[in-house]
Design brief:
Blueprint: E1 2-10, E2 15-23, E3 28-32, H1 39-46, E4 54-59, E5 62-63, H2 69-72, E6 75-78, H3 91-99, H4 107-117, H5 130-142, E7 148-152, H6 160-173, E8 180-184, H7 188-194, E9 197-202, E10 205-211, H8 212-218, E11 220-225, E12 237-242, E13 247-252, H9 255-264, E14 269-274, H10 277-285
Parallel strand pairs: 3-8, 3-9, 6-7, 7-8
Antiparallel strand pairs: 1-2, 1-4, 4-5, 9-10, 11-13, 11-14, 12-13
Helix pairs in contact: 4-5
């Protein structure tokens, strides 16, 4: 769906990149990382709102310095900072303006989404709350039924009810398998519930891309009967602790392989604990690489 090859954006205080990223079609990819890590810059480069200083971006297999209108019409975008140009328009007026750019704009679907999200009618966007404006932006991004959705912190300002509704709508638009979503978020629960792949960005650098379920299946804290001498030969060991004279605990990034090795030696886990996603991301940032990672 998208490829970024050696893409670099130079900033006064730091550089973003080089980014080498291949986005597969029909999946949800979550860009995660601390604030200021470069996630919004990457999305803005994908929309050509910011031009990279180096490298090449390919959309739908087509490389171009300019994002062609035919491709742009297949992309829905919710930016982190909302547009100022439409602030004196109502939701209906802004939708009428946007629909001119999309041949696939579905006015009935947009109206249905406004009702579901309880977006006020006949009210100028500048008079709406942040959450109401956000709900309009999500509805407008979904209305043309795009093949690619770029969402920058889409749940910012949403109440729990609207957040759940947004999650349901994003799942619905993925059902046909023809939509791809690239989602920038700091909400751990969004990543856990939605993402197929995780891309970790830190200090402007891409630390890798990995399949989410495999990541969470493999990164675990485990307890076994034995001592620390047994741990040094196991793969993916991050840390360990001698709990008692006969019990040792450890964190591994390759739990499935560890279990196979221990089972062949006649050793079973006493118990295991799946790491929380924020624990995994913190350990990843510290330099512990996931197995099967796309660099």
């Amino acid at each position: 769906m998208i490829e970024m090859r050696n893409v670099m954006k130079r900033r006064r205080t730091k550089n973003i990149g080089p980014i080498n990223l291949s986005i597969p079609e029909g999946y949800i990819i979550a860009l995660v990382g601390p604030n200021g890590s470069g996630k919004s810059t990457i999305l803005n480069m994908l929309m050509q709102m910011i031009r990279p200083d180096e490298g090449e971006i390919t959309w739908f297999g087509e490389a171009s310095k300019e994002l062609p209108m035919a491709i742009r019409q297949q992309i829905g975008f919710v930016p982190e900072q909302l547009s100022a140009e439409e602030k004196y328009m109502t939701a209906e007026e802004a939708a009428g303006f946007r629909s001119l750019w999309y041949s696939t704009w579905d006015g009935y679907y947009f109206d249905e989404l406004l009702s579901k999200f309880d977006v006020p009618r006949g009210v100028k966007l500048r008079k709406m709350s942040k959450g109401e404006r956000r709900k309009f932006e999500i509805a407008a991004a979904l209305a043309p039924r795009p093949k690619l959705l770029l969402l920058d912190e889409p749940s910012s300002g949403l109440d729990p009810f609207a957040w759940k509704l947004m999650m349901d709508q994003l799942r619905d638009c993925m059902k046909d398998g023809n939509t791809t979503i690239v989602l920038s978020t700091h909400i751990v629960d969004e990543v856990r519930r939605l993402a197929d792949y995780i891309v970790l960005i830190h200090h402007g650098k891409m630390l890798g891309m990995v399949e989410k379920d495999g990541l969470l299946d493999n990164w675990k804290e485990c307890w076994i009967t034995g001592d620390a001498d047994m741990i040094s030969e196991l793969p993916g060991i991050v840390s360990w602790k001698q709990e008692t004279a006969n019990t040792v605990s450890f964190i591994t990034t390759e739990c499935l392989d560890v279990e196979t090795i221990l089972h062949s030696a006649g050793i079973s886990f006493i118990q295991t604990r799946s790491l929380e996603l924020d624990e995994v991301l913190s350990l990843w940032i510290q330099g512990n690489k996931p197995a099967g990672m796309q660099d």
